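Q: Sequence in, structure out?
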Amino acid sequence: MDNVWKGYYFHQYIPHDKGPFDFCRTSWLRLRHSPGETTHESPHHSHIIFSSCFSKHKTSLSKLKNVTNERETRIKELEEKLAHEAKEQSKQLEVIQEEGRITTELTSLGAQCRGERHEQVITRQREALTELRIRIKDLEQLKPPSKC
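A: Exactly. Output:
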């Protein structure tokens, strides 16, 4: 146990930059670099300092885990929402494309119908003109020639 507190293992878990646990780091370094020197701190006092630092680290780690879990949950929610919106947009795009196809088909069908009706009208007009010519011939034959 003494090696853990005074040895090289514990420093791996202490941040090396200035941060919320700078007090723990400086206390550890002070104890670590003066193993044989007598300080105002007793071994029991250093144990209390490290226990306090350890619980601070543990609390901080717990908070960070909670924040990480919350963010991961939020990321999953946003990914699901994005996937749902992508599906909705895909459906809307399909509907728009289908409407475009229907419009195109109806337009071409309408043009075809107009073309067929136009042909039908021309055919009826030819038949009517032929009938009129026949009637005119019949009338000319029934009418006596006039003397001028």
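DSSP finds three helices and no strands in the chain.
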